[in-house]
Structure formats: structure tokens, C-alpha cells
């Protein structure tokens, strides 16, 4: 029997999904090199790796969205070539995408039947579609309203629809691509329950993540991917430190050493801040907040609760409906963005690719984007190239920016180094307030450590630091105080050692008291409640 | 988990979790501009009181209609006064912002109808001839026929994510095809078929460049319009006018037995030419295609979220091609109307911007076949009103009256449409990962 003959004789024993020697190149970049991966029914196999390690490329290959240059996909003993997602779906592979593949203006039922519409003569039988939704949601305990429009559903429910969509196509192997990024801790618990029950039903589950805690909680097997290759396999018993080392390639410290620091005067004061999105929904709702010099206030919350809009409204790139913003006692809410920068407001935007730098400009140019028009960088209308370049050399050394030269386009740097450029630019001048939105999103673990240290150092200089983060680990590592935001409002402000459970409940809208009552924790660990 | 479906609202295109809503800046601007417009119009009507004399007469039947209805006489001065006051009141209501959503719509409607009635009363008051209401409405449908068909073509393309600015060009090429083939075959049916094929041909050009080569679709549309104008002009001058290939037969109106005997409605609606009926049927047909068939679901999915469609195995380019080509059929038939309903002759660029009016109808009709058709009819009404009022010998210069449909377009697009949401990926070429 030749090895590539599709043989079904002992397919029961052969039931598995196997990737062998998968290699994918984009130009000179090798995204995947010789990756082997096996998934058996009834197990949860975690794929752990940093952003850019090649996890998504591998999964896109498995789902037929990309074709591998080398290697083989074998499903239940039969080698397969996927030229498109349809082939993968037909082979029993389903995917829960990180960015949901749902049409916002369609109903749940319409999304679930898309591509496989029931009906006759081209006319859709919606009643049959609804019945199928109801059956599936009962079978798997995932309740959804088949007639709800996707755009009106909370993110957690949208994800259920995405899962049901995969199950509707009779998937036996399910890929979850970074599914926890958009969920509250309670929703993550719920998702893990769902994944376990799918496993117990005999489905094979691939769970992609970069969060070590989640891996250890749920994995049956772990494959760590680094720079496009398998860096190691592990069991769920392996320690976080050891997993992190495999993921990054060297030892990393996962906690920031941070001294107690005395908070000073209030340097940023928001009162009644309200911002309205283009569609009329209130993104930031009558919000009051104070941040003192020398403290880090973290705003925690599930993505989409107005944090991004709040940050943008502070720097002036999002319209403010009402309310006042004061920096060091000066009212700045009528200032232009440039005037706010001059008033001492530093800003690390959430979407750095889009708002943080000009990708086609050099490192040196990006480092003076907010001060090029002033001495020493400008003289009259002319730029002083020498000063700009010497500034760049200093910053590159100080912030350990890994770049081939200061003339390299920023777009060519890694995510972590791009973020270092942004931070270096913002921190290289005297600040009153620093607003940093998702400062370490998409940044490799090694760089996270460095960025966190710099943020703490900025606090120690007496700056009021406002950090917006959806990562509770980051909040716990940095915050002096934690404000939890839900639907545009601060539901409460608690101390940095508040349990994840309490924070999770608050992120779903519970007040501090409610959250602590239902989480049933002693109040001693949540000192400094300031509501 | 954060509960079941929240009732909070109709958030559109938002990444925000559902929560509280407020009037947006855009809606506020829309409310204020409509309020100002209606108030100004109301004041204008009150100003016209001084120039309103005698009674205004409205003819409800044509001389040849089987059932003759009486001509209505209304006192001019009081009616204009009432309409003016209604407009001012509606405008003021909008400006105060105290009206709830439903009443805002009502105020807008009162303002529009009040202006129309007041204006017509003023125009007809004391004139020798009555204002021909039945004629106005019957002609509205005739004028609107190509606009409705063009708008349907636009809706089909844009629902699939391809912006179609080239409706005008499709009209032109299809019209010439209808003229030539009609002349050769002396058959209305063959002329319509040829026009449809020509429309599809133009659509194929649009599709090749928009879908395959991912050219900017607005620029592409403009270029195709220029191409159509140039080619039809060239062929007309160099070939068809010399060789007498430019006199197609002209459609006659078909009275539908029974229905055309209904007083007022019969002669107005059920005594039209074949293309008008075809346009009327096309609207529900396109609606069913888009919203009740799996083809339509797939077309709309590639217009909204092509990657989502791709991940369930739908061919994004295939669906877009099919929608653009089907749209071409409707645009082509619309183009035939210009020949077959008029003189049978093609003259240079004689579609006169109708394709752009159809495009405006697509946007104002919010990419929905029914609403787009309604908007097309509204433009037809404005066009026809311009020429009917001219017959009354009003002091308004006829050039201003001819501007009416275009002014209506500008006002409607700028002020009245408010929150419109195109298909999320309209105009965005799709490239696989």
C-alpha cells in the first residue's frame, strides 16, 4: 500500500486530523516552516504562540483560505488538498474566527444558512433555517434567538452564533482562533465550558491563544509555535514560566517590579464627559474621573464599552458632546489636538498601525511627529535633519528599538518595536498626563516587559498615567487603581489586588458592592474602594 | 454571560455594546435643515398670497378618458394661506426639536404636501386652463420608467458591493442598440432584447475592471460614461445616420382590459406602454430576488462582508459578476425606453443625465428596490411638474421649472435622506487573504 493511497479500511483507528511538514512562504518571509500538528477527536489541543508567530497562517491553511507551499493535510487517514474553505468545511473542519465572519445586518438564522441555504427553486425556506438554529442551540446548550440581527447582539452572543455556524456544517474538528480576546472573564469561563462539552461530545478542538493562563486551564495537549516553527510540545501541567520561555525563546519575567509610589495632585480631571458615536449610541456616558500625578489608573473593561472613544476624545480625535477635560487645572476640551499635546497630554493610541505612526516614514521622522515644528527640530520653516537624527539615535538606544537603522521605515519593524517608537516619542518630552490605550496589544512578551517598565518609570516621574486595557493581567501588573468601564460609564473604582472574579462581574455591569457580594470575597483584599 | 438579546436598539455598524442612544449630530443637522427648508417654503407661500387671484381649477380627467370626472374648483387665496401656515407650523415644529420621531416624519410629510398643494393652487389660480392632475400623474409614470429600471440596476450592483456610476453609459449604449436593431427588425421585442444585451455588455466592462482589475469604481464609472458617450456619438455620425439605421418603431400604449376603465386610476396607471408595465413588474421581481432567494442572500453577503461569504465557500467574484450582469439587463431595458417611447431616433447624449438621477434614487432609496423605485417616481413627478406648470403660463421662467427635478435631487440628497447606510463593502474590491 502506497502511503498516499486514500485508504478507509481501518479509518476508525485513523480518526484524526494531521498536518505534516506544513511550510508557507510569503516572498522571503517564511510564515510556517515544517509544522507538524495532530488533533484527535475528543481532545483540546492548544496552539500557543506570540502574535506573528504563524498560528493564524497555519490555521488559514487548515481552513483552505491559504494553500501551503509544502506539506500535507490528512483528515481521517485521507490526504486532502483544500483549494477553498468549502473543501475544508466538507472535510469536517469548522472555524470560529477571531474577527467574526458574520454579516452584521443579517439575522442569526440567515448567517447560519449562508452558503447552504435550505429551500426549493432558489427560494429560501426560512422556517426550516430557524428550526435548524433552534435544534442546534438546544443540542449544544447555546441559546440564541434565530431572528435577532447580529449587530444588535452582544459580542459574547455573536461568538455563540459563530460556534453554531461551524456546528451547523457538521464540523468534527473545530478551530477557535483567539476566541477569548473580546470576552469578560465570566464569558471566558462559559466559553471554556462550551469547549469542554464539545470535546466530551467527541469533537476535536484546536484552541489558539497567547494567554498562558487559559492554556493551562483547558488544554489536553499544547503545541508552542515560535517564528513559524514548532518550538515544543507540552502537557497542561507545565508551568507558565516554562511555557513562556518556549514561546519567546528566552527567559522572561512575567511580573513588573513596581515600588509603592505617593500619588500627588490631580493632574487629569474629567467631569460629565459624554461622547456620541455617529449612529447616536452613547459611547462615553456622563463620565467623571480623576487621575493624580504619580499614579497609574487603569481602565478595565470588555472591548466596545467606550474605552477607545474615551481615549480618542481625550486627545481630541473623537468629538465630545459635553463635559469638561482639565489638565493641570486648565480646561482643554475646546483645544485642538495640537494644543492638547502642547498642554502636556501624551497619547499612545490603541490602533498604532493606523493612528500611532506613519508607516512609510523613517524611525527618525516618526520620533519627532509631535514636535517637528518646534525648536530644536525646526528653525523657521526648515527642519534640522542633524538634530532629528541625533535625537533618533538617542531614543533608539534608550528604548532598545531593534531596527537596522534610524532611516528604516517604521512599517518594517516588528509590532513591539513599533510600539517602542510610539512610546519613545511620547515620553521624550515633559508630560502632565499620559493616555495609553492597549499599550501592549500585539506586542511580543519580551517587549511587554520593557514597555511596562517604562510606563511605571513615567509614573515615578510624577505624570498622571491613564492606561486603557482589556487584558486583566496587564491591569493587575500596572495599576495603582482600577476603574471598570461598562457601557460608557465607570461602574466602580477598586484597588489593584481585586480578584478577577469581582472585576469580571463589574465588567458585565455590576457595581462594586454587587460584584463583591456575589463573588463572596472578603473586602480586605480590595482596599481603597473609591467609587 | 451578558444576557440575551438586548432591546436597546438599532445600532448600525457599531462596535459598541448596545447601550443608551442620543440624537446624533447628523440627525440633528437633518432635522434642522428640513425644518428651515419647510419654514422658508411656507413663508414663500404666504408671500405669494398677494399674487393669488380667483379660483384654482384641477382637471381630474383627460378629454379622451372613458369616464369623465368633474374639474374641481377651489378658492385660491384661502387654500394657499392654509398651506403656507401648515408649512410654517411643520417647520417650526421640527426646529424646536420637541417632536418625537414619528411626528417628525409627519411634519416633514405635511410640509412637502402643503408646499405642493399650495404651489399648484397658486400656479392654477385665475388661469385660463385647469391644472391637469390626471395627465401629470400618468406622465409621471412614463417619465419615471427608465429611472426605475436604472435604479434597479444600481441597487443590484451596489448590494453586491460594486458601485455603479455608469448607469448613464448603460442607458446610452442600450438606447443606440435599440434604435439600430429596432430599425433593422422593425420589432419592438427585438429592440428591447438588443438593448438588454447592450446593457449587459456595458455591465461586463464594469465588472471586468471593477472586480477583476480592482479599479477605483467611481473613476471607472465616469470613464465608462465618457466611453459610452463617445462611442455612440461616433457610430451615430459615421454609420447609422448615413445608412438610415436610426428609425425604430415606437411603442403604443396598451390599455389593460377592465382595469383601465376604473375612474381616474384606470387611465392614469393602466394605460401605459409595455416598458412601463415591465418596470412595474421588475420592482417586486428584484425585491424577491434580493430578499427571498439564496442568490439574493449571497449577493447581499458579498456586499456586506465578502470575507464572511468567502469563508463559507461562496465565490465573492462570481456573485458580484452575476449581480452586475443581471443589473445590466435592467439598465439596458431602461435605455430602450428613450428610443421606443419617444421618436425612435437616437440623438447624441440625449439621455440627459437620467442615469445620474437613477443613481440618486438608489442612494435616496437606501439601496432597497422598493424605495429606490419610489424615489425614481418622485423624480419623474418633479420633472413632469416642471413641464405641466409651464403650460399654465405662470410668471416663473420655464428654465427654473426645468430645474425642478435637479433641485429636488440636491435637496433630497443633501437634506432629507439623513442616516443612510450603504452596503458595508460597497465599492471595495475583494482580495483573498
CATH architecture of the largest domain in chain B: Orthogonal Bundle
> What is the approximate shape of chain A?
globular
Number of domains of chain A: 4
Task: Name the helicity range of chain B.
Answer: 55-70%
Q: Roughly how many Å is the radius of gyration of chain A?
A: 25 Å
Account of the protein in words:
The complex is a heterodimer of chains A (531) and B (433). Chain A is an alpha/beta fold. Chain A is 32% helix and 25% strand. In chain A, the strands form six sheets. Chain A has a six-stranded mixed beta sheet, with helices on both faces. In chain A, strands 18-21-22-15-23-24 form a six-stranded mixed beta sheet, sandwiched between helices. A four-stranded antiparallel beta sheet of chain A has the order 2-1-4-5, covered by helices on one side. Chain A is globular. Chain A starts with 16 loop residues before the first strand and ends in a 12-residue tail after the last helix. The N terminus and C terminus of chain A are likely disordered. In chain B, the strands form two sheets. Chain B has a three-stranded mixed beta sheet. Chain B has a two-stranded antiparallel sheet with strand order 4-5. The longest helix of chain B has 27 residues. Chain B is globular. The interface between A and B is large, with 64 and 48 residues. Chain B: It is found in: Cell membrane. Chain B: It is a multi-pass membrane protein.
Indicate the topology.
The complex is a heterodimer of chains A (531) and B (433).
Chain A: E1 17-26, E2 29-39, E3 44-49, H1 55-62, E4 70-75, E5 78-80, H2 85-90, E6 93-96, H3 108-113, E7 119-120, E8 123-124, H4 126-140, H5 155-168, E9 173-177, H6 185-200, E10 204-209, H7 212-218, E11 221-226, E12 229-234, H8 240-248, E13 266-276, E14 282-292, E15 296-300, H9 307-315, E16 322-327, E17 330-331, H10 337-342, E18 345-348, H11 352-356, H12 363-366, E19 378-379, E20 382-383, H13 385-398, H14 415-427, E21 433-437, H15 445-460, E22 464-469, H16 472-478, E23 481-486, E24 489-494, H17 500-507, H18 512-519
Chain B: H1 25-48, E1 55-59, E2 72-75, H2 76-96, H3 101-124, E3 131-132, H4 133-159, H5 167-185, H6 188-212, H7 217-240, E4 254-255, H8 265-269, E5 271-272, H9 274-292, H10 294-304, H11 306-311, H12 316-340, H13 354-364, H14 369-390, H15 398-416
Parallel strand pairs in B: 1-3
Antiparallel strand pairs in B: 1-2, 4-5
Subcellular location (chain B): Cell membrane
GO molecular function (chain B): transmembrane transporter activity
Main location (chain B): membrane
Amino acid at each position: 500500500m502506497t502511503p498516499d493511497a486514500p485508504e478507509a479500511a481501518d479509518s476508525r483507528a485513523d480518526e484524526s486530523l494531521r498536518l505534516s511538514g506544513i511550510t508557507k512562504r510569503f516572498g522571503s518571509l517564511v510564515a510556517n516552516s515544517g509544522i507538524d500538528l495532530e488533533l484527535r477527536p475528543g481532545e483540546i489541543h492548544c496552539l500557543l504562540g506570540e502574535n506573528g508567530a504563524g498560528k493564524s497562517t497555519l490555521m488559514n491553511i487548515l481552513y483552505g483560505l491559504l494553500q501551503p507551499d509544502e506539506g500535507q493535510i490528512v483528515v481521517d487517514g485521507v490526504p486532502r488538498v483544500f483549494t477553498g474553505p468549502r473543501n475544508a468545511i466538507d472535510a469536517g473542519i469548522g472555524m470560529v474566527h477571531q474577527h467574526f465572519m458574520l454579516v452584521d445586518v443579517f439575522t442569526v438564522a440567515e448567517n447560519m444558512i449562508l452558503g447552504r441555504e435550505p429551500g426549493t427553486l432558489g427560494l429560501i425556506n426560512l422556517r426550516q433555517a430557524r428550526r435548524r438554529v433552534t435544534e442546534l442551540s438546544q443540542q449544544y446548550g447555546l441559546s440564541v434567538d434565530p431572528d435577532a440581527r447580529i449587530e444588535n447582539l452582544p459580542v459574547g452572543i455573536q461568538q455563540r452564533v459563530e460556534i453554531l455556524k461551524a456546528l451547523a456544517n457538521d464540523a468534527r474538528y473545530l478551530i477557535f482562533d483567539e476566541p477569548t480576546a473580546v470576552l469578560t472573564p465570566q464569558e471566558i469561563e462559559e466559553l471554556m465550558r462550551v469547549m469542554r462539552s464539545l470535546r466530551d461530545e467527541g469533537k476535536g478542538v484546536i484552541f489558539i491563544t497567547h494567554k498562558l493562563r487559559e492554556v493551562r486551564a483547558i488544554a489536553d495537549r499544547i503545541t508552542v509555535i515560535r517564528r513559524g516553527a514548532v518550538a515544543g510540545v507540552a502537557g497542561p501541567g507545565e508551568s507558565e514560566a516554562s511555557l513562556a520561555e518556549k514561546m519567546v525563546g528566552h527567559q522572561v519575567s512575567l511580573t513588573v517590579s513596581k515600588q509603592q509610589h505617593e500619588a500627588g495632585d490631580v493632574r487629569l480631571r474629567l467631569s460629565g464627559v459624554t461622547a456620541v458615536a455617529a449612529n447616536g449610541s452613547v459611547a462615553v456616558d456622563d463620565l467623571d474621573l480623576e487621575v493624580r500625578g504619580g499614579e497609574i489608573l487603569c481602565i478595565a473593561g470588555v472591548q466596545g464599552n467606550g474605552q477607545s472613544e474615551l481615549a480618542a476624545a481625550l486627545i481630541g480625535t473623537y468629538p465630545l458632546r459635553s463635559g469638561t477635560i482639565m489638565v493641570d487645572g486648565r480646561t482643554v476640551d475646546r483645544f485642538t489636538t495640537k494644543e492638547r499635546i502642547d498642554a502636556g497630554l501624551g497619547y499612545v493610541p490603541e490602533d498604532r498601525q493606523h493612528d500611532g505612526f506613519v508607516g512609510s516614514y523613517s524611525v527618525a521622522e516618526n520620533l519627532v511627529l509631535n514636535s517637528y515644528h518646534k525648536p530644536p527640530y525646526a528653525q523657521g520653516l526648515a527642519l534640522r535633519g542633524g538634530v532629528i537624527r541625533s535625537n533618533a539615535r538617542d531614543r533608539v538606544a534608550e528604548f532598545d528599538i531593534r531596527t537596522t537603522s534610524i532611516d528604516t521605515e517604521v512599517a518594517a519593524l516588528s509590532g513591539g518595536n513599533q510600539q517602542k517608537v510610539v512610546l519613545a516619542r511620547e515620553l521624550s518630552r515633559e508630560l502632565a498626563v499620559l493616555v495609553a490605550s492597549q499599550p501592549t496589544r500585539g506586542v511580543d512578551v519580551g517587549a511587554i516587559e520593557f514597555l511596562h517598565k517604562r510606563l511605571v518609570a513615567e509614573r515615578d516621574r510624577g505624570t498622571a498615567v491613564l492606561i486603557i486595557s482589556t487584558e486583566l493581567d496587564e491591569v493587575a501588573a500596572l495599576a495603582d487603581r482600577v476603574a471598570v468601564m461598562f457601557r460608557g460609564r465607570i461602574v466602580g473604582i477598586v484597588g489593584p489586588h481585586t480578584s478577577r472574579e469581582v472585576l469580571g462581574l463589574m465588567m458585565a455591569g455590576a457595581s462594586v458592592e454587587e460584584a463583591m457580594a456575589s463573588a463572596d470575597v472578603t473586602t480586605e483584599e480590595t482596599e481603597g474602594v473609591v467609587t | 454571560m451578558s444576557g440575551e438579546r438586548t432591546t436597546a436598539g438599532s445600532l448600525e455598524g457599531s462596535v459598541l455594546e448596545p447601550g443608551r442612544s442620543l440624537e446624533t449630530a447628523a440627525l440633528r443637522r437633518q432635522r434642522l435643515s428640513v425644518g428651515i427648508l419647510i419654514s422658508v417654503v411656507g413663508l414663500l407661500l404666504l408671500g405669494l398670497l398677494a399674487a393669488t387671484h380667483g379660483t384654482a381649477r384641477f382637471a381630474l380627467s383627460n378629454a379622451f378618458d372613458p369616464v369623465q370626472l368633474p374639474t374641481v374648483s377651489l378658492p385660491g387665496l384661502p387654500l394657499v394661506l392654509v398651506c403656507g401656515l401648515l408649512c410654517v407650523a411643520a417647520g417650526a415644529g421640527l426646529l424646536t426639536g420637541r417632536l418625537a420621531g414619528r411626528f417628525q416624519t409627519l411634519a416633514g410629510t405635511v410640509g412637502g404636501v402643503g408646499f405642493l398643494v399650495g404651489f399648484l393652487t397658486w400656479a392654477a389660480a385665475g388661469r385660463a386652463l385647469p391644472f391637469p392632475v390626471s395627465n401629470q400623474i400618468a406622465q409621471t409614470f412614463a417619465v419615471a420608467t427608465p429611472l426605475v429600471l436604472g435604479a434597479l440596476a444600481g441597487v443590484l450592483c451596489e448590494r453586491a458591493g460594486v458601485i455603479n456610476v455608469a448607469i448613464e453609459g448603460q442607458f446610452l449604449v442600450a438606447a443606440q442598440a435599440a434604435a439600430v436593431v429596432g430599425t433593422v427588425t422593425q420589432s419592438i421585442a427585438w429592440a428591447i432584447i438588443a438593448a438588454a444585451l447592450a446593457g449587459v455588455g456595458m455591465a461586463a466592462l464594469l465588472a471586468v475592471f471593477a472586480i477583476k482589475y480592482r479599479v477605483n469604481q467611481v473613476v471607472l464609472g465616469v470613464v465608462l460614461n465618457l466611453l459610452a458617450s463617445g462611442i455612440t456619438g461616433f457610430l451615430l455620425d459615421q454609420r447609422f445616420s448615413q445608412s438610415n439605421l436610426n428609425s425604430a418603431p415606437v411603442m403604443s400604449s396598451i390599455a389593460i382590459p377592465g382595469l383601465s376603465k376604473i375612474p381616474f386610476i384606470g387611465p392614469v396607471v393602466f394605460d401605459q406602454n409595455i416598458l412601463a408595465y415591465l418596470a412595474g413588474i421588475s420592482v417586486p421581481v428584484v425585491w424577491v430576488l434580493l430578499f427571498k432567494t439564496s442568490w439574493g442572500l449571497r449577493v447581499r453577503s458579498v456586499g456586506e462582508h465578502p470575507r464572511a461569504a468567502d469563508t463559507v465557500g461562496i465565490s465573492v467574484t462570481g456573485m458580484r459578476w452575476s449581480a452586475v450582469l443581471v443589473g445590466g439587463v435592467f439598465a439596458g431595458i431602461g435605455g430602450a425606453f428613450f428610443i421606443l417611447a419617444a421618436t425612435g431616433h437616437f440623438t447624441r447624449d440625449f439621455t440627459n443625465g437620467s442615469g445620474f438621477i437613477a443613481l440618486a434614487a438608489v442612494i435616496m432609496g437606501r439601496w432597497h428596490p422598493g424605495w429606490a423605485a419610489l424615489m425614481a417616481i418622485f423624480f419623474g413627478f418633479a420633472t413632469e411638474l416642471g413641464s405641466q406648470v409651464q403650460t399654465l403660463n405662470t410668471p416663473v421662467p420655464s428654465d427654473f421649472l426645468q430645474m425642478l427635478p435637479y433641485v429636488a435631487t440636491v435637496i433630497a440628497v443633501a437634506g432629507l435622506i439623513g442616516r443612510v447606510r450603504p452596503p458595508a463593502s460597497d465599492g471595495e474590491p475583494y482580495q483573498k487573504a
